[in-house]
């Protein structure tokens, strides 16, 4: 007997209300070619928080939109998990602050709900969904749904190479049985190792070895793909309509997608069709050493990325996944969930019916861990996705000058005691009112 599906039943997003234009505002001050950002990293804008926004207000605003859209109240929610790597409290989880905000506007409260905070860099958003999935599958949810909120202010030290990949925002997701949007697979693949390329040990901004962080991302992703392939039935390129990857910047996804395609095209008609052009994929058993095999793989990948077959696949299965990331930057824990949303929104725009089709979702967090699982798009997906107002939010952002950007970056740097006027006006939303009282709705 088949199990009732469990997965994502609703999604809402809240973008930081400021925007930094990378090619036109950031590049000239850094004396860089704008194409380094638009073509190299693949980013146009970063979303940044206004002075009255933080991870709590953005998370609470996204969650309020989601509960309202679904017509839910606190009594319908049995669990609130927040994924973040921008937490400011080592004791109380951020979910308690967010629940406190929401309780100001609903008649009942969340006293019955299990609240927590998940940490493993960017992969913790996916881990929170996993926790919710397991809780529902175990039958401990008493008919209630779980609220998962991934919220971050992904800021780097000024002058750090990561500065061009900043972002801020929250994505709220409702996890439930019989979901409207996607059902999660039971199969998962993992690649996990103790790494030190991206750290925030008791510090606000990360210490990053950017180039190494990219190699670590690819190494863990390869392991997770191999682990997934060892147990799953659907592992071929034809099995998946799209592959949303964790997107620190779209240029990283270009590298990850090539790796992904090599794996999921292995042993398929696609590999056979490509063989006359670039040969078959090297198999490890054909080489005298691991080094020789890896060298052969690199040569194969260099040729693969120039083929029409790969380019067409990339345009269809990958390009739509980075549309939002290009306009908002890295939202850390929310990033792969933005990639899924971007995918589904572009399918709505293209009038493509995805019901029954599969996504292969590839999450990653520094430190480091990659996770792969499949999702099946559900019949109600289009009605659930079409009303999400991402474009309206992104168009409404205030466009910062470089000088304004530096001042607001200082406001969000807790080591500096800086106060400036807000650039935008709150409109019936939760706002940060200072340490102690924290936030209220204005
Ligand atoms: P950089 O060193 O300033 O940039 O920063 P670059 O010189 O390597 O250039 C970037 C790309 O632009 C290169 O492309 C250049 O060739 C190209 P590639 O060779 O890599 O394909 N380029 C140009 N293209 C066209 N026209 C031009 C031009 N100039 C250059 N004129 C770096 C790059 C990633 C190091 C930096 O942004 C950084 O440190 N970022 C933060 C770390 C990061 O995002 N790492 C990604 C993997 S780790 C991860 O995803 C986890 C994370 O999300 C955190 C977490 O999990 O918690 C970060």
UniProtKB/TrEMBL annotation:
Transmembrane segments: none annotated. One of its GO terms (molecular function) is hydroxymethylglutaryl-CoA synthase activity. Keywords: Acyltransferase, Isoprene biosynthesis, Transferase. The keyword Transferase applies. It comes from the Archaea. Residues 29-178 form the Hydroxymethylglutaryl-coenzyme A synthase N-terminal domain. One of its GO terms (biological process) is acetyl-CoA metabolic process. CDD domains: init_cond_enzymes. Residues 197-412 form the Hydroxymethylglutaryl-coenzyme A synthase C-terminal domain. Its EC number is 2.3.3.10. PANTHER family: 3-HYDROXY-3-METHYLGLUTARYL COENZYME A SYNTHASE, HYDROXYMETHYLGLUTARYL-COA SYNTHASE. Belongs to the thiolase-like superfamily. HMG-CoA synthase family. This is Hydroxymethylglutaryl-CoA synthase. The gene is hmgB.
